Amino acid sequence: MEKLMHVVPPEYAGNTFSQAWQNVGALDLPLMQRLWATWYAYFQNDSLATGLMIFCVHEIFYFGRCLPWMLIDVIPYFRRWKIQDQKIPSQREQWACLATVLLTHFTVELPQIWSFDWICGMFGLSASLEFPSFITICYQVAMFFIIEDAWHYWNHRALHWGPLYRWIHKMHHKYSAPFGLAAEYASPIEVMILGLGTIGPPIVWCYITKNLHLITVYVWVILRLFQAVDAHSGYEFPWSLHHFLPFWAGAEHHDEHHQFFIGNYASSFRWWDYVLDTNAGPKAKADRKFRAAQKAKKLQ
Ligand SMILES: [Zn+2]
Ligand SMILES: [Zn+2]
To answer: Does the keyword Signal apply (predicted)?
Structure first.
């Protein structure tokens, strides 16, 4: 079993980042790989370096992506694109949400993220200085998106079953008009169940193929965070991605889930809800009623 050890040999270690940066210069690497090598050369403890990086990636990109949405919420100009335009989250609501999300990150997710390196070491994830090609990153991330979406659809749908909803999922539905920060506002059990859809696919893929680099996992996690925050943003623009990629879910899709509560269970794509006839909203409901009536007529 390959372990995440000695990404950079000890002779390149440095006591400061700049010293490590200078030392790994001798390896003559492209910029990204040199930054990567510096990080590992500085820590000289690959588990700590990976765990800390995953945690930082999560915090920086989650809150970094939430910030523009918080600003948009206070600028009246953008109100025209707000999906539920009468429901602007108050600053107080947003700060309360932020405090809960931060608490969850530090108490529930930090230990899980820390164990990620250990799990990946067991399954042969590579953290080497040899990065995969752009094409490899793209197809692997695309595959993780498809698998996560399926996982999310079924588990989220199950979480809407009475007892599970009351015990677990109700917390996430506190906001019927969501906003970016609310993406990870959920019970710790829900974070674990749905979070498995994000970390599970890379682990299984790695176990089967032994062909996965940690940088691909970072790209995947960042894009998945963007998807989750944007889906909760509450804004639908003429340039939103689903206008160009009709199967992309986006904010419109998930906002309706929060608004109407039933339907639109998938995360990234629209196909599961379309095929299994679980689209949300009054129009989808009327269509379903109409089709059921037609079917009943035929049977008579
Ligand atoms: Zn739900
Ligand atoms: Zn949601």
So the answer is: no
